Amino acid sequence: MPIPNSYFQTLIFLIAFGSALTGAMPPQNPVQCTQTGCTLSNSYGVWGDRQPCHVSAAVYPTTEAELLSAVADASWRKLKVKSVSKFSHTIPKLACGGAILISTERYNSSIAVDKANSVVTADAGAGLRAVIDRAAEEGLSLAAAPYWEGVSVGGAISTGAHGSSWRGRGGALHDHVVGIRMVVGAKESEGFARVVDLREGDALFSAAKVSLGLLGVISKVTFSLEPAFKRSITFNFTSDDGIEDEFMDHANKYEFGDIQWYPSRHMAVYRYDDRVPMSTPGDGVNDFIGFQSNFALIAKSVRATEKAAEKARDTNAKCILASSFVAYKKLTANGLKNNNLLFTGYPVVGHQRRMQTSGSCLYSPESDKSVSCAWDPRIKALSFFESTAIFPAGQFAAFVRDVKKLRDLAGPASFCGADIYNGFLVRFVKRSGAYLGQPEDSVVVDFNYYRADEAGAPRLHGDVWEEVEQMAFFKYLARPHWGKNRKVAFLGVGRKFPNFGRFLEARKGLDRVGIFSSEWSDEILFGIEGGRGDGCALEGLCICSEDRHCSTRDGYFCQQGLVYKEARVCRYANTSAS
């Protein structure tokens, strides 16, 4: 039975009301321990393979000396060791597989600004927001930041977190790093652990900037800063005609520009985002809608609506949701506020520290259980896959044209599932010197889409998203974001990074006995495909080659792509015929 339109009108009203909240239940601690051991989860509460991540014990250093002692103990006992922050926002299982888990949650007290040299040095566990605010107190700005501020500085640089910019040092946070102190394993004569202090130009610095936690445990990070500045932002909601021809000019014209592309709506939203003088009037703030607090009941209602649409195979319901959400984003400027309370018109001008990143659902007392981030696993609300493909700039236009061809063949409605979230978020990252960073100026594309509560459950129009995913990573050889993606995105990943071999050499030199590696992190680093069990393609654990990799009982069979014929996707059909 189709979902009535009146239901959607009520739901959108409730969402608008809920997003006006100013606080939320903070995310749960990712490390939960009992007398028998500990379990590590990510912020979404579920790993790619849906299997728990167990460790024997967790330690919480508060100083570099305590961190050194923890690594030395693990090294002496030849135990696998992994590190994690209090945020644990990484989707792949990079932090799993250690007997000992080192949490930097309590190693966050020191944030020192050297105003004369325009740098800030922070403990690895320090939150990004705290570092940004401390720099601002001294009249300085960190020029780059990921859009989500719920990250530690150590974790953010380890996985290549980024914003959007091709100018200056670029949009990737690690490219604004000028120093790293890291604790690594060592010989017995060195006390089983030592501190390496790396600066720009050092032989190992390019390996350490994006290390995936595989070289050692980051202790401190030093960032380059700039004199404080303001930004002016305007969103232009317009047609997606010509987006493949205009993205390059847009990236070059606006220092912090991005594009949100909603294929089902035939709409592109160009972000006109540039720095302006401090004297420019305005005290705006970026409070992105997706990162605002939500009543748990509302977030559950959105999830229930999407689940009902999936069960009924009601494409129209998903498209009504997508259309309503995009309209609401336009009305509210996607969370921009001119005066910290309301959006009153463009442009929105504000200080860099208030415009560069957001995450208001992070902050509130534990006592309030009624509101939270919408994906908080404790409320069993939003659950989604997040794919992030990083294209050489010269390949992106052809990818867009192929996606438009796929839209024509599958129908615009087949893209509504992603447009409910954020469509295709297009950002720009500059060429990096990091071995596991981007080897050329690149275009980053993020898209989120429905994930079922049960393993192996198919998705409405899931074949479209599998084809987009395979088209990106295997036809156009896009590189995966190290902190996001389903497992299939990492297949053959080493061949896409020219300095991959140099990173492996650095890892071998710093971690001679392999205490920082594990089966799970090696599967990501080396792009190893796991088991090919029933339903594995629906979970992104494999590319289907047999119907059993899909869900024949639900009418999903392994078939070739509509545009990218080499793709193999799980498509709803009467038979398994290609």
TrEMBL record:
Coiled-coil stretches noted in the UniProt entry, renumbered to this chain: none
MF term (GO), any: L-gulonolactone oxidase activity
Catalyzed reactions per annotation: L-gulono-1,4-lactone + O2 = L-ascorbate + H2O2 + H(+)
Record keywords: Ascorbate biosynthesis, Oxidoreductase, Signal
Keyword Oxidoreductase annotated: yes
InterPro entries: ALO_C, FAD-bd_PCMH, FAD-bd_PCMH-like_sf, FAD-bd_PCMH_sub2, FAD-linked_Oxidoreductases_BP, GULLO2-like_C, GULO_Plant, Oxid_FAD_bind_N
PROSITE patterns, A to Z: FAD_PCMH (PS51387)
Enzyme Commission numbers on file: 1.1.3.8
Signal peptide: 1-24
Keyword Protein biosynthesis: no
Enzyme type, top EC level: oxidoreductase
Residue ranges constituting the FAD-binding PCMH-type domain according to the UniProt record: 51-228
Example GO biological process: L-ascorbic acid biosynthetic process
Pathway: Cofactor biosynthesis; L-ascorbate biosynthesis
Family: Belongs to the oxygen-dependent FAD-linked oxidoreductase family.
Stated name of the protein: L-gulonolactone oxidase
